[in-house]
Design goal:
single chain, mainly alpha, 0% strand
Length: 149
């Protein structure tokens, strides 16, 4: 396993993720809930300690860098936006927890509509692919995908 390049390409990850995200309603739910979940996780980590958030951020950004430099930049910008929001919003941990739970309920409703289980049930790395999939979809920079299985 290379530390500099992922064994699986970004396109392969995205194609595999897209298999259980084809339904329009499920996609719309994900476009809202995935960024919200990401934001709440940032809030949890920052509420524990800013250093913990920094360590987790470095690990996540390393994952993205191994897949794509442009994805790394996009996710770093999104992460900074999330950290800025958490830092300046006067929201306590219980509000973040409620938002987190509601967003996950939305995700599971989306997958019920889709008729497919969430991708992360197969591989936890899909929890990092979800935000990338949303970012690339919303930005119009989604590559042409073929499932890798």
């Amino acid at each position: 396993m290379s530390l500099l390049k992922s064994q699986k390409s970004l396109e392969s990850w995205l194609a595999d993720y897209a298999v259980s995200h084809r339904n329009v309603a499920n996609k719309k739910i994900h476009f809202v809930c995935v960024p919200v979940i990401f934001l709440t996780i940032v809030a949890f980590l920052m509420n524990v300690h800013y250093a913990l958030m920094a360590v987790v951020a470095v690990g996540m950004l390393w994952f993205y860098l191994r897949l794509s430099t442009s994805l790394f930049v996009a996710m770093m910008v999104f992460m900074v936006i999330c950290m800025t929001l958490v830092h300046f919003l006067p929201v306590n941990i219980w509000v973040w927890l409620a938002i987190f739970v509601i967003a996950w309920i939305g995700q599971f409703i989306g997958h019920k509509i889709e008729g497919a289980k969430p991708s992360f049930f197969e591989d936890l790395q899909f929890l990092l692919i979800g935000p990338a999939w949303v970012a690339l979809s919303v930005s119009g920079k989604m590559p042409n995908l073929q499932a890798s299985y």
